[in-house]
Amino acid sequence: MEWLWTDIFSHPLWAFSTLVLGLVVRAQRRGPWDPRACPVELKGKTAIVTGANTGIGKFVALDFARRGARVILACRSEARGSAAVREIRRRSGNQDVHVRLVDTSSLASVRAFAEGILREEKQLHILVNNAGASGLRRAITPDGLEVSFATNHLGPFLLTSLLLDLMKSSAPARIVNVSSVNHWKGVVDFSHFHGDNLTYTMDSVYNHTKLHNILCTNELARRLQGTGVTANSLHPGVVMTEVMRNYNWLIRLIFNLVGIFFFKSAEEGAVTTIYCAVSEEVEGISGKYFDSDCSLVLPAPLARDSALATKDFEVCERLTAKL
């Protein structure tokens, strides 16, 4: 008897096995560390999360609020940020949750935000640099910087630098930089910062920025030795968030269809960031890179080049210095 592929695909067993496989894959997306099982409290602590009005950032901020922290959502949109504050207050029962405006693509905005924080806050224990974008079209900011590099790297770099003294005086404190496994496909070319020698195919520019994240995190950690402030970077996993909003509708459709079974939800994607920010296991660990299951892993060889990290950090210092 001759079977056709259409006979197999139309058989009820095919639909059932596909459903079972999907459920198994979904179950495997959860790592071994569960934030809800972590007893660490953050009462009396202050935390800042950039890009916290949606996606990973919002669930990170929600977790901190549930632990009793004073949480500042650093967002571009006041309307969306305020909506996130109301939701987090309601779900956590913590009213000490606030929104402050910052656009990490603008160094002036970052400076204004940092000035406000230094004026209003007496301490800062956790800084999560989560805000980022992929698929942005080529553009040069008023600072003369390529917009993806400004948004994903140089803005967060400057923000961290401006808040370092406050964090040192609040030690122990932790800096958590959300990078990506995509850094393996990145390269370092300092002309990229000004928009030169870049190709805008898919996520190539994003990949470069994520490599810079890890390099500068490692150099920052080296410089912070003995201060009580740690700095680590991480890959959150492939997560169903708004990170794809700048791509065309077909790419977004494919991403979302595949993601239903294989990609993490924003809540699942927030776990490694939370782990790096609050877990007792990470206490004292600095200059490391964590995978999406909260495990310590080695980043790409280029990201482990200490001489390159030092040079990268110095270039970023010059580019973000106030002239």
Q: Please state the CA-atom Rg, rounded to the nearest Å.
A: 20 Å
Helix content: 40-55%
Tally of DSSP helical segments: 11
Order of strands side by side in the largest beta sheet? 3-2-1-4-5-6-7-8
> How would you state the average pLDDT, rounded?
87
The main sheet comes to: 8 strands, mixed
| SSE ordering | HHEHEHEHEHEHEHHHEEH
What spatial form do the alpha-carbon principal axes imply?
Answer: globular
Model regions low in confidence, pLDDT < 50 over at least 5 residues: 1-6, 17-29, 251-262
Question: What is the CA-CA span between the terminal residues?
Answer: 80 Å
Structural class comes to alpha/beta
Q: What portion of the residues fall into strands of 2 or more residues?
A: 5-15%
Per DSSP E runs of 2 or more residues, the count of β-strands stands at 8
Any overview of this molecule?
The protein is 46% helix and 11% strand. By secondary structure, it is α/β, with parallel strands linked by helices. The radius of gyration is 20 Å and the shape is globular.
Summary keywords:
single chain; 323 residues; alpha/beta; globular; disordered N terminus
Secondary structure layout:
Elements lengths: L4 H6 L1 H17 L17 E5 L4 H12 L3 E6 L2 H15 L4 E5 L5 H14 L5 E4 L17 H23 L3 E6 L25 H20 L5 E6 L14 H14 L3 H4 L1 H8 L10 E2 L5 E2 L8 H15 L3
Parallel strand pairs: 1-2, 1-4, 2-3, 4-5, 5-6, 6-7
Antiparallel strand pairs: 7-8
Helix pairs in contact: 3-4, 5-6, 6-7, 6-11, 7-11
